[in-house]
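so my prof wants the structure for this chain in the tokens format not the other one, which i didnt know existed until like an hour ago. anyway here's the sequence
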Amino acid sequence: MHRIVVTFLLGLLLTGLLSGGEQTKPLFKEFMGINGHTVVFKPELYRPTCALVRDYHPIDWDFGDDTSRATTFPFAHNRVEWKHVYGSWQKHGFNINVCLMFDPIKHDKWKNLAADAKQYGLSFAKFFGPSGAEKLVTSVEIGNEPGEYDDAKYRTLFENMARGVREGDPKMTIATCAAVPGKSHRYAKSLTCFDGLHDLFDVINIHVYAEVEGWPTWRRSFPEDPKIRYLKEVNEAIAWRDEKAKGKPIWITEFGWDCSTKPNNPKNEFAKWVGVTDTQQAQYLCRSFMVFAKMPIDRAYIFFFNDKDEPQIHGAAGLTRNFQPKPSYYAVSHMHKLMGDYRFSRVLQEKEGDVYAYEFTHGTDAKKRIWAVWSPTGSDRKAEITLPLEKLKLVSAEQMPLAPGDAPKVEIKAHGESIAVPVSESPLYILLETGN
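here's what i got, hopefully its the right format
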């Protein structure tokens, strides 16, 4: 009996339930997501990469040019059959989050902004929500990046659409649009827009990109770069949440890097655009997932699922290029398969410009661990570090893959109770187990 009690308490400690009240970290299969888009998303192709999908759902498809027109779900006004679209995603095992997009509708084109928004939210939640007959959609975001609406009009739309969703299905999770702690701007609304409305949203939604500069290059850096705002923006959102909306989850619903094989067009606005390589895209996405997993973040969605190889911002961010897998597709799929049942447990080392080493623990078998080790740089750096085994047994090691097939195996050298670990920009995954 004593052994059973000790084992149980150790299990609680490992899952974070006795670690000072910190919420249990999500498993990677509950954490990794991708942005899709309506009828062109191929669920069978992208299911190996994650189990969460976010859709950009244009609500004007549902009521056409009349915001007061009653919806006819499962059909949109333009005859897209949402039951078939989302049903096929669900059939492949996806948990579906829908971003309700109203950007094409000018604010003065609504017949009655408050009433129409509420009715749409009610109708959508009643048909698609987890309490409905179809149970197709688990969560909705009210708006994507609604910068064309001023704060007052967005608040009116959000409040009424959220009330409609709550009435239509109280079990449906509601997220804000892309939001920031500071002032509203073209691509995000200030979190002050939701003051006094905390009962109408369940999730704080943010978009983050590792941007060094905007126009004309839109150049991005590596995720751990201390000179950019990438991770700082996440930490600012966390700080706001902890002060103003304690307990609300934070989702990163857009992050990513563009990589194109084509030369820039010297005649358009992207003549000086700077992308990353295919390999860097793979490295930076996987490293971002792990850095985000360390933070109190509940989900992270890659932007984007597919691209047409356009050398411009957001034009080459897909895991596939014309639906053909890039190196990032294989790297992310490998991470999802290898680490899906694991969650972040602790930092082993975290040295700026040198090495990041994190430990992840299996969700149901605490004896199983994965150490992920990489160089937090953007210069194709290589090095070697020594890590103490801490009474763990080395099982195997494999490098982040860039091609189909098994991940490359890596031989790890043991030195007594320590191991010598090669470090590169591509994460190395070391599988270990505890003794009895």
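also thought this was worth mentioning. Confidence is low (pLDDT under 50) at residues 1-21.
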